[in-house]
């Protein structure tokens, strides 16, 4: 528990600094401009560098199938439920569903898995991290872009727009660097220092600025008005998501260590990329902001529960 708090507290301090900045320095236009800067500069550098330096050779196919099979199943289940039962617009349903499956795998996941399961568990987590954004954010982005192309009464039929939509999705500030980095990794090309160093500087700015933006967003909203939806999304992410991963892992006979890593990873709070996704598409920004804060606090309970219940390797 102390390790979890030692990772969450520094992030909370940065969010608090962003809250003060939102009250004193950043107006709505400034927050939007800074968000666009993250989305079009810092985040693409982070994604490309992460994918280009990732190693996929040791990935466990069964672990990937269990984790991403369960995550995508839960993602589509939440999105469809919100659309059919609650009447949510497709972009809103996608943003909330992404929040229900997208974990904070790096900032919080790496130290927790390393402490709980050692180097063997960490290697499995790195396999999950390598595909995390590629699978979840790409699916959410393509679905949302496709839905936006068919909004309105005069929307063209699917067969006329699927090509342009896929093209615009691939030439996207999130997906393009992921694909480019993946191809770079597959080609086993080294990153020259004169490229890697500036990429590293820009990439390192993404995480802190995302947290500052979350704080600034919190300063513009009445948190109490969004607590109910934030608690609901927290339950979907911190508790229902790992339960789904555990069920699928058990069904396909995942080994104990792999199952433990997968379930613990799913028990992590909502990742910051969901907030940037919501801001980019101007949908559910306040809900995602509040839910990310609540989910991070609830991670103390969800991770403790997961570590107590998962099979010990």
How would you describe the overall organization of this protein?
- It is built from twelve helices and no strands.
- The chain is mostly helical.
- The protein has a single domain, classed as Na+/H+ antiporter like fold.
- Helix 1 (2-24) packs across helix 5 and helix 8 (193-219) crosses helix 11 (272-280).
- It starts with a helix and ends with a helix.
- The relative contact order is 0.18.
CATH class: Mainly Alpha
Hey, roughly how much beta strand do the residues contain? under 5%
The largest pleated sheet is described as:
none
From the coordinates shown, what is the CATH architecture? Up-down Bundle
Number of helices: 12
**Overall pLDDT confidence:** 83
Number of strands: 0
Domain count: 1
N- to C-terminal distance? 20 Å
* Helical fraction: over 70%
User: What coarse outline follows from CA principal-axis ratios?
Assistant: globular
């Amino acid at each position: 528990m102390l390790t979890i708090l030692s990772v969450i507290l520094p992030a909370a301090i940065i969010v608090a600094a962003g809250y003060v900045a939102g009250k004193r320095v950043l107006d709505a236009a400034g927050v939007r401009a800074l968000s666009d800067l993250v989305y079009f500069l810092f985040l693409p550098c982070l994604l490309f560098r992460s994918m280009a330096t990732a190693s996929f050779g040791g990935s466990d196919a069964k672990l990937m199938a269990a984790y991403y099979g369960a995550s995508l199943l839960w993602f589509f289940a939440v999105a469809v439920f919100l659309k059919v039962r609650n009447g949510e617009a497709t972009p809103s349903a996608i943003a909330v569903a992404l929040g229900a499956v997208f974990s904070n795998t790096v900032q919080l996941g790496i130290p927790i898995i390393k402490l709980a399961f050692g180097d063997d568990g960490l290697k499995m987590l790195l396999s999950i991290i390598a595909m995390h954004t590629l699978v979840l954010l790409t699916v959410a982005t393509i679905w949302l872009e496709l839905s936006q192309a068919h909004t309105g009464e005069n929307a063209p039929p699917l067969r006329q727009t699927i090509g342009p939509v896929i093209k615009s999705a691939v030439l996207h500030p999130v997906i393009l660097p992921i694909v480019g980095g993946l191809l770079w990794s597959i080609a086993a090309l080294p990153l020259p220092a004169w490229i890697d160093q500036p990429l590293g500087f820009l990439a390192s700015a993404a995480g802190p600025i995302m947290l500052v933006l979350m704080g600034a967003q919190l300063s513009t909203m009445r948190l109490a008005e969004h607590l109910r939806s934030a608690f609901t999304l927290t339950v979907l992410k911190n508790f229902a998501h790992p339960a789904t991963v555990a069920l699928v892992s058990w069904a396909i006979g995942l080994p104990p260590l792999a199952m433990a890593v997968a379930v613990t990873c799913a028990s992590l709070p909502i990742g910051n990329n969901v907030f940037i996704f919501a801001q980019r598409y101007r949908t559910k920004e306040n809900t995602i902001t509040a839910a990310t804060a609540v989910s991070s606090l609830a991670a103390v309970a969800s991770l403790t529960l997961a570590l107590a219940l998962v099979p010990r390797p």
